[in-house]
Design brief:
Elements lengths: L2 E4 L9 H5 L4 E3 L5 E3 L7 H12 L5 E4 L7
Antiparallel strand pairs: 1-4, 2-3
Bound molecules: iron/sulfur cluster.
Iron/sulfur cluster (SF4) binds next to helix 1.
Length: 70
């Protein structure tokens, strides 16, 4: 099972992740992305992969996901 993370050192707060997958991500009080579902499955895993591909900073990580391009 893959683990969804955001690298806080890399995230700059574009918000694209929580625009794409608001059920997997949220923004913290400073506008940076946070993960709300750390172990997505099924459709949520597909959404997590899309968010990882869409983050301009490549800050969305799917650790252990063989299909991830992140
Ligand atoms: S899209 Fe990337 S840089 Fe933007 S808030 Fe999400 S993780 Fe951070």
């Amino acid at each position: 099972m893959s683990e969804l993370r955001i690298d806080p050192e890399v995230c700059v707060g574009h918000g694209r992740c929580f625009d794409i997958a608001p059920d997997l991500f949220a923004d913290d009080e400073e506008g940076f992305g946070t993960v709300t579902v750390p172990r997505p499955e099924g459709r949520q895993l597909a959404d997590a992969r899309l968010a990882a591909r869409s983050c301009p900073e490549q800050a969305v990580l799917l650790v252990g996901d063989s299909s991830s391009t992140a």
